Every structure is written in C-alpha cells, then in structure tokens.
Amino acid sequence: MARVAIVGAGVMGAATAWQLARRGHEVDIHEQFLVGHTRGSSHGRSRIVRLAYPEPEWVQFAEEAFAGWRELEAASGERLLELHGLLELVGDPATSSRDALEARGAEYELLDAEAARERWPIGVPDGWTVLFQSEAGIVRADLAWQALLDVATKTGAKLHESSRVESLAALDADVVVVTAGSWAGRLLEPEGIELPVKITRETVAYFKLDGPPLPSIVQLDPESRGHAMYSLRDPIHGLKAGAHHAGPETNPDDDGLPDLHLLDSISAWVSETYREADPKPLGAETCVYTTTEDESFVLERHGRIVVGSACSGHGFKFAPAVGERLAALAVA
Q1: Which end of the chain is more exposed for a tag (fewer CB within 10 A), N or C?
Q2: Within its chain, how far is the Cα of 294 from the centroid?
Q3: Smallest Cα–Cα separation from 68: which of 320, 323, 322?
C-alpha cells in the first residue's frame, strides 16, 4: 500500500483522500488553514449540480459525479443533493446543451420564453430559449465538504490542519497529491511543473426569495457558450447569484472583498430574472477561481507528484469523480 500526502483539504483533496483511504492506503492530508475557511474555493452553503453541458464528455463526467454524490450520501448519512432542476437560458437553441444531452440519452425540455415565464416566476429575454433539465439543482457544499473529510478520516486518513506545506520535496511520502487550489502553482514550480492558470477573485451575492425552491439558472453567453450569469438556491436566504469569470486577478494570500461593481451587475440581473426576489442583496462574499484557458481541469501525474488543480470555477459538482481519477493516478 502507498503512503500518500495530500496537500490541500478542500473538496478535491477531501474526495481524493476518501478514495485512497477506503482502499487501504496510508493518507495524510495537509491543510494550511482550518477546515471551513473562506480563503479558497470550497466554502459556501450551496453549489450548482447539473448534467447540462454543451459537450458530451462533460455530461458523462457529471453523470459519474452524481453517482459519487449518492455514494457519499449513503456513506455519510447526510442528504447532500437537492434536485429542483436547471434552466439554461440561451439566445439560440443550437448553443444549448441539447445535443450533448441527447448524445448521452439524458432527458430535457425546450421551451420558448413565453412558455418558460408561464411555468416559473422568472424573466427570460424575448426570443430566447430555455432548456429545462431535471437532473440538477444544488449540492449542500459545506455539508458535502465536511462529509468527505469525515468519511475519509473514519476510514483511516489523517487530517493535519494549520499545516502549511512550503516544499513538496520535504514531504515523506511515496506519492504527493497537490490539490492546493490557487496555491498549487507556487508549490509545483520548484518541481519543474508548470500550471498555466489565471487566479481571479469572484463575487457572489445572496438575496431574499421566499416560496418553493426554483430550478438553478445558468444564462449562457451567446458567443462563447460558457455560462455568464448564474443563480441557485441558498438554504438560508433563498437565492444565491453571481457572474461567472467576471472578477479581477488576485493573489490568493490577500484578503479580498466583494467587487461593488459586480455586485451592482448581479443585483440588476436578479431584478430582471426573478419576479419574486428582493433585488437588494442581503450579503456578499468572494470565491477564488483558478482557471485554465479552456476551463478544463488539470489531472495528471509527474513522477511522484499528482496534480489535481485548476477546476476553473465549475469543479465542485465533479468532486467525487475527480477524487476517483486522482486516486487512480496516485496508485497507478
């Protein structure tokens, strides 16, 4: 059995630790802060989960992750997924996730703007199309993060909090898995491993929205097909919203504050999109993105070092599947 050191106890490191520990490997997880901190990318009460992606390979990856979340629910006894569906707002149905979902045999509906407005209390631009996909909603992010660490430590992994790693070479392990988020690059560079990423600080805001949970919403950019604005259920206030990949570049060691200009843009979008929400934000926070140019993930091995990084602002939903892949790389 391998001795594995994991650097970074965010959701990806925690998922990897669970997969390795349950297979009997000796696992030490090093976290520079205390678990539950808000400095990285894993904090918060909710994240979107969805099958809908414009590429079939991402749909398949999401299917694998859904199975992993269900397995984690069974192992932890926690209800982690709340599936109320997803609405994908697109200017042209050809740019939606329709074709990729069809390729994977996943069900969906296409509605015009008027039909969508009649079915849900939302605003949709005239002439736009709405794709509804039922296998979507939220994962309770804070509960999921803790659940992964709980099942990992219960199966033998050792968690070391306030344990900042300055050098990968100094770690006494057969394999080192780097899941350090925005701090990964500085750890990998001395090892001759380049991580071509951009680090940004993104702003999310919370709004009061009463009533039954609505589907999560992703509004796609007409040109890039990437999601521009997004919203999802917040278990306390009712609604969480943000602008995807809109924040400034940052140093992850800095204490970042929400961007007031972005907060205004998010509030304006909420006002246009939710008829029953109060567009005045109740609060805001930041989240650090570590992004590759094409928003793909970096999951690869270099000697004894396994890199699990750059989950590009949309990785949380894939954590169980990422953990499987990184664990496989670690013991290959």
Answers
A1: C
A2: 16
A3: 320
Buried b (16+ CB within 10 A) or exposed e, 106-130: bebeebebeebbeebebbbeeebbb
The mean predicted confidence, pLDDT, of the chain is: 96
CA 197 distance to own-chain centroid: 17
Within 8 A by CB and 6+ apart from 271, the residues are 277, 279
What CATH architecture does domain 62-139+198-291 belong to? 2-Layer Sandwich (3.30)
| Amino acid sitting at position 331 | V
Cβ-defined contacts of 259-262 (< 8 Å, 24+): 259/201, 259/203, 262/202, 262/203
DSSP line for 146-184: HHHHHHHHHTT-EEETT---S-GGG--SSEEEE--GGGH
Neighbours of 167 (CB within 10 A): 9
3-state DSSP call for residue 207? Answer: strand
End-to-end, the C-alpha distance of the chain in Å comes to 12
CA distance linking residue 27 with residue 210, whole number of Å:
44
- The mean pLDDT of 77-84, rounded to a whole number, is 98
pLDDT over 90 percentage in the chain: 95
Q: How confident is the model at residue 221 (pLDDT cuts 50, 70, 90)?
A: confident
For the chain, helix (H) and strand (E) counts, in that order, are 8, 17
**Which one-letter DSSP state was computed for residue 213?**
P
What ranges do the domains of the chain cover?
1-45+140-196+295-332, 62-139+198-291
In this structure, which CATH number among 3.40.50.970, 3.30.43.10, 3.50.50.60, 3.90.380.10 belongs to the domain 1-45+140-196+295-332?
3.50.50.60
pTM score above 0.85: yes
The 10 Å CB-count burial string (b at 16+, else e) for 169-206 is eebebebbbbbbbbbbbebbeebebebebebbbbbbbb
